[in-house]
Amino acid sequence: MTDCLFCKMAAGEIKPDVVFEDDAVLAFNDLNPQAPVHILIIPKQHIANLNELDDINLGGRLLQTAAIIAKQQGFSEQGYRTVFNCNQHGGQSVNHLHLHVLGGRQLSWPPG
Q1: How many whole angstroms separate alpha carbon 79 and alpha carbon 70?
Q2: Long-range interactions of 69-72: CB distance < 8 A, separation 24+
Q3: Residue 98 bears catalytic tag
Q4: Which member of 38, 46, 89, 98 is catalytic?
Q5: Do the Cβ atoms of 95 and 89 come closer than 8 Å?
Q6: Over residues 31-52, mean pLDDT
Q7: Residue 1 pLDDT
Q8: If you classify domain 5-103 with CATH, what class do you get?
Q9: How far is Cα 59 from Cα 49, in angstroms, rounded to an integer?
Q10: Three-state SS for 68?
Q11: If pLDDT is split at 50, 70 and 90, which confidence band does 111 have?
């Protein structure tokens, strides 16, 4: 999509603070972090939200990337949280599927 912020990042038109990239996904530091480490993982292809994800392999790739990043960042053993927000009531603010990875401190529950 030509007006999608995350599509522009995936295409290299906008340069995020990249922490991981492969042929299918891009991961970068969130501009408004909610934890000491807050990384977003996006598919490079445009998928608006979790309801539209029909590729089980890509879903698994997003989650596997979260585990790789947690290990690289050094908090996989202490623990971390992964979150997909879906649509307005779910708190999704950018209409491009993205997985939040939060870590680096004790996270409370419920999240809000």
Answers
A1: 8
A2: 69/19, 69/20, 69/27, 69/39, 69/41, 69/101, 70/101, 70/103, 72/19, 72/20
A3: yes
A4: 98
A5: no
A6: 97
A7: 61
A8: alpha beta
A9: 11
A10: helix
A11: confident
Burial (CB count within 10 angstroms: exposed 0-12, middle 13-18, buried 19+), residue 23 = exposed
Q: Compute the distance between CA of residue 77 and CA of residue 92 in angstroms, rounded to an integer.
A: 28
23: which residues sit within 8 A by CB, 6+ positions away? Answer: 44
- Written as six digits, the tokens of 53 are 């994800």
**Helix (H/G/I), strand (E/B), else coil: 82:** strand
Domain boundaries, the chain: 5-103
Short-list 108, 91, 93, 100, CA closest to 41: 100
Contact present, 99 and 83 (Cβ < 8 Å): yes
Q: Which residue matches tokens 């991981």?
A: 20
Q: What are the angstrom distances between the C-alpha of 7 and each of 3, 20, 34, 94?
A: 8, 16, 23, 11
Q: What is the DSSP letter of 92?
A: -
> What percentage of the chain has pLDDT greater than the value 90?
95
